[in-house]
Amino acid sequence: MDALNETRVTEFVFLGLTENWVLEILLFVTFSVAYVLTLLGNALIIVTIVFTLHLHTPMYFFLSNLSFIDLCHLSVTVPKMLEGLLLERKTISFDNCIAQLFFLHLFACAEIFLLTIMAYDRYVAICAPLHYSSLMNIRVCVQLVFALWLGGTVHSLVQTFLTTRLPYCGPNIIDSYFCDVPPVIKLACTDTYLTGMLIVSNSGSISLTCFLALVTSYVVILVSLRKQSAEGRRKALSTCSAHFMVVAFFFGPCIFLYTRPNSSFSIDKVVSVFYTVVTPLLNPLIYTLRNEEVKNAIKHLRQKQVFS
């Protein structure tokens, strides 16, 4: 029993995305470009909002926080993945694996909560405009952001505790390119059915509850838009459609990965790539290409040579 309770595994080995070295080089170039573009795009949004006074509103305050979370979320997995694409043997120490797992869930959960808050912000702005300034003042916004980080931390601690309490005696091969709870607990040398169900209940309930809250808020918004003017409907639909696109791209993979028991679906890797690499890249594109205020602010700052 004492031997079983010890953590014997000191490192994990990733199988990665593919064993074809030509494809690995192509993926390395593709993901490197995507990583740099994502860093620049999200940094551009943050700088633009910070240096543009008329964007100092709750909506853009939350948008800048979303860009910050995307930068963090992306940097948890992509650098290690890029390193693995260049190495024949892709390894990570046990402690680093747990750290990666912790921060992955912290930033993912924080983004889920933030997207839900952003939907509430749009609901108040469109359905209760006369009370917007009192319901969504700067103090409330800061409190909401603090709450989402607290909630993300609690969720991540639960996931990490459920993972580390298991004994790992071998094997140590993870069929993925990063450490996440489902592929890691498969390697535990004990029955993980109950742990797996607890993990699904924790992650799945958060994803589904927030997603249903988001859908409900947008249904209410769409119904209320019938009373708006044509210009008001156009502006509200433009903002809400951009937000809903981000929600769909992020929540879809999360719900697929975390609302079912452990499995060995090969499509899991593709879905994981989508929500760890593609979604953070799409967010700045969606919010800048569809948002005239942000585009005009970027042009104005460029003329003032803020980016030079």
Automatic annotation (TrEMBL):
Localization per record: Cell membrane; Membrane
Main location: membrane
Stored PROSITE patterns: G_PROTEIN_RECEP_F1_1, G_PROTEIN_RECEP_F1_2
Transmembrane segments: 25-53, 98-120, 140-158, 206-225, 237-258, 270-289
One of the record's GO molecular function terms: G protein-coupled receptor activity
Gene Ontology CC terms: plasma membrane
Domain of life: Eukaryota
Stored InterPro entries: GPCR_Rhodpsn, GPCR_Rhodpsn_7TM, Olfact_rcpt, Olfactory_Receptors
Gene3D superfamilies in the record: Rhodopsin 7-helix transmembrane proteins
Record-annotated G-protein coupled receptors family 1 profile domain positions: 41-287
Keywords, comma-separated and alphabetical: Cell membrane, G-protein coupled receptor, Membrane, Olfaction, Receptor, Sensory transduction, Transducer, Transmembrane, Transmembrane helix
Membrane topology: Multi-pass membrane protein
Function: Putative odorant or sperm cell receptor.
Family of the protein in this entry: Belongs to the G-protein coupled receptor 1 family.
PANTHER family: OLFACTORY RECEPTOR
Name by which UniProt lists this protein: Olfactory receptor
Organism per entry: Enhydra lutris kenyoni
Gene name for this UniProt entry: LOC111153315
